[in-house]
């Protein structure tokens, strides 16, 4: 059944990950090689590693939506995706160190919502699995 609550959480996680390509996580001044100070924004597409991890999160969340028939597999892959999103946040914070000064942007909130939505989806999948097991006992 695709109309479960975890489908909504997975879709929202994919949507937030997609929006991190558009909205900046952090914006501020960076010193370039010729000692020139330039204003830059840190978005998901500004670094190759961020690009790969964020694109993987989007693809993984969309694929997870359609794994509703294999709840165990969906559960474990969702946990892996949540770990991947936390690693993605760690990479974001390591890239912030290159900035001289700046501020967090809207994309930071979106990036923080991704693991929350994935953990909520994991909780929904777990509840469905418990429900199916309890119904199997009654048969």
Search tags:
single chain; 139 residues; alpha+beta; 3 strands
Description:
Helices cover 66% and strands 13% of the residues. The protein has four helices and three strands, in the order H-E-E-H-H-E-H. It has helices at residues 5-19, 48-65, 71-96, 106-138; strands at residues 26-31, 37-42, 99-104. The protein has a three-stranded antiparallel beta sheet with strand order 2-1-3. Helix 1 packs antiparallel against helix 4 (106-138) and helix 3 runs antiparallel to helix 4 (106-138). The protein is elongated and about 75 Å long.
Strand content bin: 5-15%
| H-E order | HEEHHEH
What is the average per-residue confidence, as pLDDT, rounded to a whole number? Answer: 90
Distance between the termini: 21 Å
Radius of gyration: 18 Å
How many individual helices? Answer: 4
The largest β sheet comes out as:
3 strands, antiparallel
Strands, count: 3
Percent helix, as a range, is 55-70%
Number of domains: 1
What ranges have pLDDT less than 50 throughout 5 or more consecutive residues?
none
Structural class of the secondary elements? alpha+beta
Strand order of the largest sheet: 2-1-3
Choose one word for the global shape. elongated
């Amino acid at each position: 059944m695709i109309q479960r609550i975890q489908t909504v959480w997975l879709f929202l996680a994919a949507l937030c990950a997609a929006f991190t390509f558009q909205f900046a996580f952090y914006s501020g001044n960076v010193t370039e090689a010729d000692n020139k100070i330039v204003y830059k924004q840190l978005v998901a597409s500004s670094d190759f590693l961020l690009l790969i991890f964020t694109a993987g999160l989007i693809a993984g969340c969309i694929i997870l939506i359609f794994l509703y028939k294999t709840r165990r597999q969906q559960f474990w892959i969702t946990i892996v995706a949540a770990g991947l999103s936390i690693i993605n946040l760690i990479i974001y914070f390591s890239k912030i160190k290159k900035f001289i000064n700046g501020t967090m942007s809207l994309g930071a909130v979106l990036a923080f919502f991704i693991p929350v939505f994935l953990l909520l989806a994991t909780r929904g999948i777990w509840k469905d699995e418990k429900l199916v097991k309890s119904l199997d006992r009654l048969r």
